[in-house]
Amino acid sequence: MRTLEQRRCTLHMVNNVEMAGEKDFNVPTNPYGDDIESVLISENKLKERIREMAARVSEDYRDSEEDLILVCVLKGAFYFLSDFSRELTIPSQSEFMAVSSYGNSTSSSGVVRILKDLDKDIEGRDVLIVEDIIDSGLTLSWLMRNLKNRHPKSLNVITLLRKPERLTANIDMYDIGFDIPNEFVVGYGLDFAERYRDLPYVGTLEPRVYSD
């Protein structure tokens, strides 16, 4: 297996912040009416980037002796995992873990509690954590320490989204889909109060929705 190097999707710079793209205020018809302010990352852009990420993982883990273990962090990363795993060209197995840190707020609380643990023993296995979004990184940092204590052969992380402005934890990332501005985003698995996960794109909420 080749040396795993950090990669990320560089698109363009706005005010020294790497952005996923300009907002599109022509929001497609959706079940939530005018709750969605804009589309930040379209469905097509998501598919294209996930295909690229899966190709890189497939290449780097091609010589693994056993199936790659994908650890999906519920609930948000489920949509990402589903599409990502189907784009892989190597065998993989999916495991699920749920931790609490968000509640209904628009930022991480920093309090971590395991709600659902892995079903499989990961000792001696190549493990790839699949995250939907990294905000402060505190929850992920805790999760990585927890999984490292289970003695996997290797442990790496991919995330679909990252907020560089919010990041406080020092985390070595294997791959990052998009860097996004410090806004509350929903769709493609991301929610606010358990709503909006089913949108096929990543969008921003109207401020009135989360300020009520």
UniProtKB/TrEMBL annotation:
Keywords for the protein's UniProt record, in alphabetical order: Cytoplasm, Glycosyltransferase, Magnesium, Metal-binding, Nucleotide-binding, Purine salvage, Transferase
Catalysed conversion reaction: GMP + diphosphate = guanine + 5-phospho-alpha-D-ribose 1-diphosphate; IMP + diphosphate = hypoxanthine + 5-phospho-alpha-D-ribose 1-diphosphate
A GO biological-process term: hypoxanthine metabolic process
Pathway annotation: Purine metabolism; IMP biosynthesis via salvage pathway; IMP from hypoxanthine: step 1/1; Purine metabolism; GMP biosynthesis via salvage pathway; GMP from guanine: step 1/1
GO cellular component entries: cytosol
Places the protein is found: Cytoplasm
Name assigned to this protein: Hypoxanthine phosphoribosyltransferase
Organism from which the protein derives: Corynebacterium efficiens (strain DSM 44549 / YS-314 / AJ 12310 / JCM 11189 / NBRC 100395)
